[in-house]
């Protein structure tokens, strides 16, 4: 019997794939966690955008933190033209904010304000199929909980979401807040890291009175990876990881 070879999905983040044997395992769900301002949305959107742009892998971005039009503007600062890829049906952005805050939306894909769990998951499934997406981003898990008005149901929702993602076979990034990574609390609800097959922590460390960004791979199934903290920067062209940089 030949050796089992894991198919890999390129992250689109310079330097990062060197840390995970060439990319994320195909069809995997990765949790990107960290405190506010650590770069989670940028990391997730870069994965989606570069997948569509460089590797011809269409992507769905479900934005629950900011309106689609604001996300486009923010990402344009990196030179990423999301609108062009949307026109080419390589990216679909699902606006999950407008209805919740009571604003009208002119987007093609909009989540209604009062969707239940099943409808929410079904809608995402439909958009993935509509553009034959190979990648999916959901930003963020706490915002799903906020929509539910019942945080105790988040466990059930995440388990259902995980089942559907595995069934779809897309490579997915979910983002969540890490309230206190220094003390080991790396996700808001404590269940996110268990449903994900990979966990990437983005955080800051104080270095000579300056805050420096670092990345730590807490878990990645089917992958040999280091448990060191690697420096990264958010440059004019997005996130860059330095695998041979000074480890904190």
Automatic annotation (TrEMBL):
Residue ranges of every copy of the KaiC domain listed in the record: 7-248
Superkingdom assignment: Archaea
InterPro entries: AAA+_ATPase, KaiC-like_dom, KaiC_dom, P-loop_NTPase
Record keyword Nucleotide-binding present: yes
Nucleotide-binding recorded as keyword: yes
Transmembrane segments: none
Record keywords: ATP-binding, Nucleotide-binding
GO molecular function, one term: ATP binding
SUPFAM superfamilies on file: P-loop containing nucleoside triphosphate hydrolases (SSF52540)
Protein name (Swiss-Prot/TrEMBL): ATPase
Originating species: Thermococcus indicus
């Amino acid at each position: 019997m030949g050796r089992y070879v894991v198919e890999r999905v390129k992250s689109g983040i310079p330097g990062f794939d060197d840390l995970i044997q060439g990319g994320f395992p195909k069809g995997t769900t990765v949790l990107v966690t960290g405190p506010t301002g650590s770069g989670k949305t940028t990391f997730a959107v870069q994965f989606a955008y570069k997948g569509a742009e460089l590797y011809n892998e269409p992507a769905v971005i479900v934005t629950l933190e900011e309106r689609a039009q604001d996300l486009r503007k923010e990402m344009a600062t990196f030179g990423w033209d999301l609108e062009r890829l949307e026109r080419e049906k390589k990216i679909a952005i699902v606006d999950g904010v407008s209805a919740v805050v009571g604003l009208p939306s002119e987007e093609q894909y909009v989540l209604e304000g009062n969707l239940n769990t099943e409808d929410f998951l079904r809608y995402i499934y439909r958009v993935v199929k509509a553009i034959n997406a190979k990648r999916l981003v959901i930003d963020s898990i706490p915002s799903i909980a906020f929509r539910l008005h019942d945080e105790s149901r988040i466990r059930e929702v995440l388990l259902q979401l995980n089942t559907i993602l595995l069934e779809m076979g897309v490579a997915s990034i979910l983002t969540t807040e890490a309230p206190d990574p220094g003390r080991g609390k790396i996700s808001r609800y404590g269940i996110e890291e268990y449903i994900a097959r990979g966990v990437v922590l983005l955080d800051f460390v104080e270095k000579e009175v300056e805050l420096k960004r670092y990345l730590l791979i807490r878990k990645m199934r089917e992958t040999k990876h280091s448990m060191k903290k690697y420096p990264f920067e958010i440059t004019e062209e997005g996130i860059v990881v330095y695998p041979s940089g000074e480890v904190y």
